[in-house]
Amino acid sequence: MRKFFIATIFAGFLFSACGQNTETAAPKAEAAAPIVIQPRQSNYYVETARPANQIQSNFPYDISLQNAQGDTLNSAKVFEKNGKPTVLMFWLTTCGPCRMELNAITEKYDRWKQQADFNLYAISTDFPKNYPQFISRVAEGKWQFPAYYDMNREFRMVMPGELNGLPQIFVLDKNGNIAYHTRKYVPGDEDKLFEEIRKLL
Fold this sequence. Notes:
The protein is an alpha/beta fold. 36% of the residues lie in helices and 16% in strands. The protein has helices spanning 2-24, 75-78, 96-115, 131-141, 155-158, 189-199, and strands at 64-66, 72-74, 86-91, 119-124, 147-150, 168-172, 178-183. A seven-stranded mixed sheet has the order 2-1-5-4-3-6-7. The protein is globular and about 40 Å long. The termini are far apart.
């Protein structure tokens, strides 16, 4: 009887000890802090374009431009109104066909100028983050015609079709009216461009 009593007390002690270990062995996990995903912010592009009705929509416009030296200019000052046909070529540094067209025009430009007197301006419509690539592309191209960067991307506000799909070329007559327009590029298009220029002489 005495042995049974001692065994009962011992079993109770073990049960109590096991219960305590069960409660303290795995402390309650604290709730994890919620993960907050911050929206990505760009340090490069801030839209500063004016509404279309505030931009001079006729040649030579009044659009802020930058050259590869970082000078800020105005199209009304740098686009010549000299009675000659004027070519406005819109392009992007990230556009393969734009590069092809610029290379093709560069190769034939000197010969063209010997046969016809006209103005040509290459206008980049890149986002501001690509301005360094614009500088590099101009230096690499060594073009004999002026190149500008449309710093507020305002030409798309005034040109027909909003410059959707590049490259695009507009040929303006001596009065600044659009006489010819082409979108995209395939080899040989530069020769068609020159024929259109000659028609306006």
